[in-house]
Amino acid sequence: MVAAAIGVDADRWRGTPTTGSDDLKTKVSTSSDAVRAIGILATDVAQENRAILDVLAYQHFGQTCGYYPDRDITSNEKQNVRDGHYLIWGPLHLFTVLNNQGYPVKPVVADIIGFMTVSKPPPLGLDLIALEAQRHVVPQCAMRVKRTDEMGPLASFAPPGACGCYYDKVANGATSCIFCASKTECLSSAPICSYGYCEMY
To answer: Which segments of the chain are extended strands (E)?
Structure first.
């Protein structure tokens, strides 16, 4: 994804081989030349290790400044990913074996995919949005932009059952959205009561 974003084929990259995210984290954080050591990690790993790693801002072609995935270096709401300012992002891909009808062979896998895509309600007591926020992953219902291709052009996105306000609350402990029990408590600028907050969609 990064190769596609910056226009440099992945097979032309140079550097120190690593065996995975934990190995890369260790090599960067213990490098004898910490100022020049750089690596690529998914945000869930990078953010869990902000005490030993610096998350860098990214400035894409045509942008006038760089953006962190979050609003700032200390927050956790992925605002710049969700609204399209931080350009290097993509969906989480789930792979499984399908039967002849095109459905997952294992029912438990079908359930997990259903929970993740919000096509099936999660078990009572399981708050997937809060869980995703804690793991620094953005659920589709919190996004405001979408793509149809890897690193393709952005399009405006109005998710059904929007959860952006609730995601802000569980990710950072606060939201500027109005709390609601029904849509009658919401203003015309955010008329939908969703997950306990007034949302635009």
So the answer is: 145-146, 155-156, 192-194, 197-199
Distance CA 102, CA 96 (A): 11
DSSP 31-46: -TTTTT------HHHH
pLDDT digits (tens, 9 = 90+) for 62-83: 999 999 999 998 899 999 999 9
- Which among 162, 121, 110 has a CA at the least distance from the CA of 139? 162
Assigned token pair, 75: 């927050």
Assess contact for 110 and 134: CB atoms under 8 A: no
Residue 22 CB neighbours (<10 A): 12
Name the strand (E) or helix (H) holding 70: none
- Is the CB of residue 46 less than 8 Å from the CB of residue 53? yes
Given a cut of 80, is residue 118 above it in pLDDT?
no
- CB-CB contact of 79 with 174 (8 Å): no
For the segment 175-192, the average pLDDT, to the nearest whole number, is 94
**What count of other Cβ atoms lies within 10 Å of the Cβ of residue 133?**
24
Handedness of CA 190, 194, 195, 196 (dihedral sign): positive
pLDDT score for 186: 95
